[in-house]
Amino acid sequence: KNEVEQSPQNLTAQEGEFITINCSYSVGISALHWLQQHPGGGIVSLFMLSSGKKKHGRLIATINIQEKHSSLHITASHPRDSAVYICAVTGGSNYQLIWGAGTKLIIKP
Amino acid sequence: EAGVAQSPRYKIIEKRQSVAFWCNPISGHATLYWYQQILGQGPKLLIQFQNNGVVDDSQLPKDRFSAERLKGVDSTLKIQPAKLEDSAVYLCASSPQGANEKLFFGSGTQLSVL
């Protein structure tokens, strides 16, 4: 079992829909990262959080430490949000970065 | 603020040749990472530096890959000799002090080994 699990693996939605991507982890962590990668593009860090909730524009990230779960929400989704969204945690025995497999999001106009 | 700089952007070589990639992290960032991302997969950590010391190189194929960060600033990653399976995007990232802080990524170097 992977230490960081994301769901869904793939998500296709219509423009304007509310999007939720989930991340569960099984190790002790000190931080959780949400990152975005566009096709052929580099990786951009969206959020780093260790508790509670963060918001940036149409993006919201939440984390529940007790349940070892985080969600990334996108409100009023747009085709330009189409990308791979990756959850990564700083944790494990040596507090290195452990990556999830990513969620491929496609927003159709 | 200047971002993480990587060069070259693209590189095409034949198998058994050598290749080197360069990364200049954000000024003042102590931690530097090199990742390998094969098409369709997530990034795989090759090596992590803290200043000029190696924190983790457990997944670096040391028979052919080497990396250095001599002055604790910019870094080079070398492959010698290259194999077909080394075709991937090589990403450099930096953070102020380790993985408990926000990561900043370069645009990557896309390597094709023919």
Structure description:
With 109 residues, chain A is mostly beta strands. Helix content of chain A is 0%, strand content 62%. Chain A is globular. The termini of chain A are far apart. The model of chain A has no long low-confidence stretch (mean pLDDT 93). Chain B is mainly beta and 114 residues long. Chain B is 0% helix and 48% strand. The N and C termini of chain B lie far apart (37 Å). The mean pLDDT of chain B is 93. Classes of the chains: A mainly beta (109), B mainly beta (114). At the A-B interface, strand 4, strand 5 and strand 10 of A face strand 10 of B.
Task: Reconstruct the topology from this structure.
The complex is a heterodimer of chains A (109) and B (114).
Chain A: E1 4-7, E2 10-14, E3 19-25, E4 29-37, E5 43-49, E6 52-56, E7 59-64, E8 69-74, E9 83-91, E10 96-99, E11 103-108
Parallel strand pairs in A: 2-11
Antiparallel strand pairs in A: 1-3, 3-8, 4-5, 4-9, 6-7, 7-8, 9-10, 9-11
Chain B: E1 5-7, E2 10-13, E3 19-24, E4 31-37, E5 44-50, E6 53-56, E7 65-68, E8 75-79, E9 88-95, E10 104-105, E11 109-113
